Amino acid sequence: MAVCKRKPDVEARGHGLGLSIALALLVAGLVFLGACGSPETGEKTLDTVSEPGVTQPPPPDPNAVPPENQREKKRKERPINETTSEPGPSTPKPAPEDSEVSAMMNSDGSITEIRVFRSHPQIARAEARWMEPSNKDLKVFLRNGKILEAKTDKIPYLHDVSSELLLQIVGIKPTSRSTNR
After folding, report:
1. pLDDT in tens, 68-127
2. CA atoms 67, 72, 73, 79: torsion sign
3. What Cα–Cα distance (Å) separates residue 60 from each residue in 56, 57, 65, 66, 87?
4. Structural domain spans, the chain
5. Cβ neighbours, 10 Å, residue 35
6. Coil, strand or helix at 149
7. Which H helix or E strand runs over 167?
8. What's the pTM?
9. Which end of the chain is more exposed for a tag (fewer CB within 10 A), N or C?
10. What's the CA gap between 123 and 26, in Å, rounded?
11. How confident is the model at residue 3, as a pLDDT?
12. What are the φ/ψ torsions at residue 61 (nearest 5 degrees)?
């Protein structure tokens, strides 16, 4: 009796090998998913493997304040002038009547314009603090040392106002020399 040796079919062997690999991957995946499950709650978690001697950070506290709130809390606890100070006036810019004007923002958010007169016979300096866009507190510092104050809505910007109008607003009649420019 003759025994006939049959050669395995290449397609059949390749198909069988592919099936074996697919089954092996499926089993490995199921084992992996089963190992990640937490026995207490049934939740799936991923455990990290650390090198010996390396410590892992503690798990986050569920009652902890979120990081952005911690920053806000530290900012509020910090004294106001610890690292920041109130900014000074901007660089003076030339203005009419031999004067210069600058502006600054106060700590309360209001804007103060400052105009310094170099050669005016009566006015040394004027300050306008914006309470609202059209309402301003005006302070006029006279050369004789007096400080006069008034509330006004007649000043759009301190840069554009004549010295005559500033004196009229605070109740002083301009001298004849102050009208000469």
Report:
1. 666 666 666 666 554 455 566 788 999 999 999 999 998 888 899 999 999 999 999 999
2. positive
3. 12, 9, 10, 10, 40
4. 12-43, 93-179
5. 9
6. strand
7. helix 163-169
8. 0.50
9. N
10. 91
11. 59
12. -80, 125
